[in-house]
Design brief:
Length: about 700
Amino acid sequence: MQTNFAKLEKLIAKNSNEYRSAPTDLTLELIRAPDENVAIIDLKPEFGWTVPLGSKFQSAYQILVASSQANIDTNNGDVWDSKQIRSLASTNVEYNGAPLEVNKTYYWKVRIWDEENRLVDYSAAQKFTTGKQENYMISSENKFVVSKIKPVSFQNRGDFYFMDFGKAAFATINFNYIAKTPHTLTVRIGEELKGENINRTPFHKSHIRYQEIGVEVIPGKTKYQLAIKPDKKNTTPNKAIALPKGFPVLMPFRYVEIEGAQAAISANDIEQLAHHTYWDENASKFKSDNEILNQVWDLCKYSIKATTFNGLYVDGDRERIPYEADAYLNQLSHYTTDREYAIGRRTIEYFMEHPTWPTEWQQHVALMFYADYMYTGNTELIEKYYEQLKHKTLFELTNEAGLITSEKVTPEFMYKLGFKKGYKKPLTDIVDWPSAGWGGDPNNLGERDGFVFQPYNTVINAFFYENMKIMAEFAKILGKTKEVLEFELRAAKVKKAFNENMFDKDRGIYVDGIGTDHASLHANMMPLAFGMVPEAHLNSVVEFIKSRGMACSVYGSQFLMDGLYNVGEADYALKLLSSIEERSWYNMIRVGSTITLEAWDLKFKNNLDWNHAWGAVPANAIPRGLWGIKPKTAGFSIASIKPQMSELKSSEIAVPTVRGTIKGKYTYVGKRLQTYEIEIPGNMLAEFSLNDMERKRLDS
């Protein structure tokens, strides 16, 4: 591996020894809702908190649960007083008091003893209400927020008013208007401009959003809410995920025009009602000396916030349906931009009963389980769904060599995956999206880099290898020793067969599958991302990958970025992240969107949405790759920090974790002198390293 760092001469692990404040950032069922009521369905919920920075470690804790505000305020845990529990645990601490009652409100708080056994004050209290548990175990009632946003630009253009709210949001508008006589206002809302006005005829109206709505105004009424017309495609019951109860019809838009006004309208009369789940804007941050990279980060971070509008990860506004691959990318970026896990966990449960048809999408479910386990340390989902999850790895489709093919899928197996009996569409290998010619455009070459499909192909078998590694670890967690060995053997077999049958030794690269000599970007970036490439072949595989450019979709870029950072290709990774080419995240900004696109540009997918979170890969690639901040052990008891700054001269970052925020600051002083300042929360260890340089172990 190459590095630009000649010497690390300064490493600072901040540790404030100031007054030890109380625990903060309380979570219940991994849900945060400061000053709000948390609704839960688990009657044995898990508590969590952040240990104050001034305390290196927690040596003990005490939790109080009370039946009233008065009792909790007087430190009376009349429902449960855990007393002093000698433990380092500050996350996933399960309730152990008298049985909680359904439909009842409780209050809880916590205090700790620090590493020197000094008592720290009680936290503020958090309120929660219990609900009835049905099929799901993860509390899904996230706290939704309606942000009331004023226009950043407001213009009277003579025959109509024009306003720009700065960013698109899943929203409607409220406005004040005083009518002297009954008449109709024409209100236009949209995502895209054409010249200086809203584009009233977008290339593909059903996907780049635009509506024109008549509003009847009458004397005596002054307050109005825009009644957006519902789109049958994304509001049909049993297909689309319904908006939470009480929500108006929402549509993503940034711009508004109002025509036909007979009375004056001002900017103060209009507000965009942007709907999203509770979001802590300060939970994460990133900036560097590369302005393009900064803009890309801002775009991607906001995209994650904006697309939380209905409580599950969905495919933007197209269908509002969860898809496994979309959700995995969304999950990674949500976990790295906010200390919020409930949506991801609830979406995982949804997929156990509502699978979708692509082969690889089934294989993303284990990736979602694993990401959640590593970021939260919670094992409840693994314990409940372990047996069902086995099927989604497709292990039953293996041949004697250990490779899998979707051609062996039967209706009985589809049922095991969660498809309803009678479902007719078989699993279909997808590799990437979209395929050539999608949308009826013969000039659309797709995003598969010419991938040649074979019964046994590299992409689904690379995913299979990763799935087997994950299942071996899950079996170990559950104490299933025999199954640990079985999954480890399956992983070893598929890796061996993969490298024997799908690697072209003469060219030093992987081909698309058994029976073809075509080699695509995907056939090489997937084994690189999952650690399947032998050391002896890393150079040739990496050079081939670099020769293909961004010959994948916004979805495929997740695994491209993972692979590059896994092997220290920081220069090329940074080049892609900050690229201004057509196939780049900056291009999404250039075309005028404020939420990431479904594809790189209209020319690559002529029915794309302007509001897909799976386009927001840099929101996790920057913290996980460029800064190298990941959980080394489940739940971040030990963090791994392996920065790969490439040509950056300065950078600052804040990454939320279940234990608190990791902060970093980098300054390039000269070729032989770069400084890092690292701050980690209490109750966490971190391993810091720069490629082959000596590993440093930090505590808070």
